[in-house]
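agent> Task received from the user: take the single chain below, predict its 3D structure, and emit structure tokens. No templates, no multimer pairing.
agent> Plan: (1) validate residues, (2) run structure prediction, (3) serialize to tokens, (4) report one or two observations.
agent> Step 1 OK, no nonstandard residues flagged.
tool_call: predict_structure(input=
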Amino acid sequence: MRYFLLLLISLFVIENSDAQIYEVGIFAGGSNFIGDIGSTDYISPNRIAYGGIIKWNRSARHSFRATLLYTRLEGYDSKSNDPRRIERDYKFSMRTVEFSAGMEFTFWDFNLHQLGYQGTPYIYSGISALFHPNYYFISNGTQTRENTMSLAYGIPIVLGYKQRISNNLILAGEIGARYTFSDELDGSVPDSENREQFSFGNTNSNDWYVFSGITLTYTFGRRPCYCNF
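)
tool_result: status=success, residues=229
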């Protein structure tokens, strides 16, 4: 993943005769988890999330985008509205890194070479990969490491609003849910098949997590020719 990210960054920053405008910046906000442990609230940030973002604007309506985000995903049954979870009282916490790449579409034209006020809602989707340690729970509810790491692939579903605040700065606020193809994030399904007896919860429902926050990006690049793409 490291070499793929370096290649992607190189493609974003190398300008050629048909150069578009680029954005590089930061993301800051919070994260929350939705699964077999903890609260089932969809938007309820409980840990800090931060990272970097890169965009390659191919037209006034769409851009390629990549992010690298760090957070600690947590879940506490004691904070759930489900009496059964409160009685069970499981909890988990783990550090994670997510890489995401895809395409962002604006609802209205957002021409970064046109001066003056500009703002628009936008949506973003693509594919995400969450690098995380594996856990399981023994009979007394103790979170136990498996001493292995996994990649949980998913689909980001992001809705946001961005606005130009100066000639070269864009501020945005967004909420992005990630549907994953894994049920292992909270330890309800151990990674090792030898520990299948420690599985619990709804094995027919995969895990979700959500990033909520703001981005601040700096724009640069020559005037584009939005042509044949």
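agent> Step 4: summary for the user.
Confidence is low (pLDDT under 50) at residues 11-19.
agent> Done.
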